[in-house]
């Protein structure tokens, strides 16, 4: 239900970002296919295709009505039956916290790594929950677009699960939609543990899509490039 509602205005609230794409593209290898896990509306997959890459997207929510090289599938059920190995896999937009437990997160990372070719990267971008919990923050900055005002609120009393709530106000009609979803907060140490369990060679950490340094208590996001 969360993404079914969100799909109506997803691209306006979370538009394509050139810096994000260029950062992702820097990890891609031209001769090998790219995989987007939790691709939502598929805008980054389509840009990879426009730039001559072989690219595919996996998305659980059929509400996004994707057409083209996309597969509707649950990331928890990876790897795919296909024997294809990818030269770059990424999951952005805080997708990987949409799991029921940290064990699910560990298993997902391990399974995704099995789809990678050797000497290639799996890149993850999530919210920096060390910052959220460290400062006891109750939400993320509001988003205002041409048509919508979006308030993003967190409800939590432990480190195992939180409720993410979005209040989306139509600026013209004043209609308010309230969407909520259960998330499993993933911390820096969880990412390190997942990478180690998956047999990663090393992990690069960044605080933004311009390659900025990651600061545990100050970076808004956590980006991890896991090398196989």
DSSP summary, beta strand count = 11
* Molecular shape: globular
- List the secondary-structure elements in sequence, H or E: HHHEHEEEHEHEEEEHEE
Largest sheet: 7 strands, mixed
Any idea how many domains? 2
- Count of helical regions: 7
Physical arrangement of strands within the biggest beta sheet: 3-2-1-4-5-11-10
User: What is the CATH architecture assignment of the largest domain?
Assistant: 3-Layer(aba) Sandwich
Low-confidence stretches: none
User: How much β-strand is present in the residues?
Assistant: 25-35%
Helix- and strand-based class? alpha/beta
Write down the CATH topology of the largest domain: Rossmann fold
GO molecular function, one term: methyltransferase activity
Protein name: Class I SAM-dependent methyltransferase
Keywords: Methyltransferase, Transferase
InterPro entries: SAM-dependent_MTases_sf
Structure description:
The protein has 228 residues and is α/β, with parallel strands linked by helices. It has 2 domains: 170 residues, Rossmann fold (3-Layer(aba) Sandwich), CATH 3.40.50; 53 residues, N-terminal domain of TfIIb (Single Sheet), CATH 2.20.25. Helix content is 23%, strand content 32%. The strands form 2 sheets. It has a 7-stranded mixed beta sheet with strand order 3-2-1-4-5-11-10, sandwiched between helices. The mean pLDDT is 94. This is Class I SAM-dependent methyltransferase. InterPro entries: SAM-dependent_MTases_sf. Keywords: Methyltransferase, Transferase. GO terms for molecular function: methyltransferase activity.
